[in-house]
Write a structure and sequence with these properties.
The protein has eleven helices and six strands.
């Protein structure tokens, strides 16, 4: 609790978890779902077992999702690949720590390996731990060149300045805990100034594009260089 108390939670008697179907039925249909496919890192799954699990999930999604925006994501490389193979309706993203932790499966150990996996299986994007994009910023243009979407997660994404820098670096989206707070703070940081009179003779769309395209100023570069060691640590 916020006051420091630690309470026991008896799931069965206090508040059982809802099913995926109940979530689809009771949550506002305008709210998109990131359906994360979780598996035990200490177990080796056979394709038959993975297929059975994923097909059970897909049955609920196809029956209940309707027009709700959906993406699938997973840290388990084989599960992510198989989900992409089993359906083409919804995007599949590969979740990775991007090298901030090391695993026996090399596909999980770098953004470079994540790109290879996505391209080999036709996945649409990567969800990386935010620290990885600051440690390995050169990976971002490679991800873009591969025509993959890049999202990030992690505690750094509750720092508005860190999210703002990712916006400038080309990250497509962030997963955060403090949604209203981060949204408001970052919106203030990226507010587009009024268009200068000198470009008023340009077409409206060109002027809008030029004004809204993020560019690194010297101040922003200096800020990034000062912030990076702390973020990486």
């Amino acid at each position: 609790m916020k006051d420091g108390r630690v309470l026991n939670w008896n799931v069965q008697s206090d508040d059982p978890l809802c099913t995926l179907q109940e979530a689809f039925e009771k949550v506002n249909p305008r709210l998109g779902f990131n359906v994360e496919l979780k598996f035990d890192d200490n177990l080796v799954y056979q394709d038959e077992e993975l297929t059975h699990i994923l097909q059970a999930i897909l049955k609920v999604v196809f029956e209940c999702a309707k027009d709700r925006p959906i993406i699938f994501s997973s840290f388990q490389p084989d599960a992510a690949q198989l989900m992409r193979k089993l359906q083409s309706t919804y995007p599949v993203y590969f979740l990775t720590n991007g090298g901030t932790e090391v695993y026996a499966d090399v596909r999980r150990n770098s953004l470079e390996e994540a790109v290879k996996l996505c391209l080999a299986s036709g996945m649409q994007g990567i969800v990386s731990e935010a620290r990885a994009v600051f440690r390995f910023p050169t990976a971002i243009p490679k991800i873009k060149e591969a025509d993959l979407s890049l999202l990030t997660y992690g505690t750094l994404n509750n720092v508005p300045e860190a999210v703002y820098m990712q916006h400038l670096m080309g990250v497509n989206g962030v997963i955060v805990d403090l949604v209203p707070e981060i949204t408001g703070a970052v919106s203030d940081l990226i507010a587009v100034p009024e268009t200068d009179v000198e470009i008023n003779d340009l077409s409206g769309q060109v002027a809008k594009d030029a004004a809204s395209t993020p560019n690194f100023t010297q101040r922003e570069i200096s800020f990034l260089l000062r912030l990076m060691p702390e973020l990486v640590q």
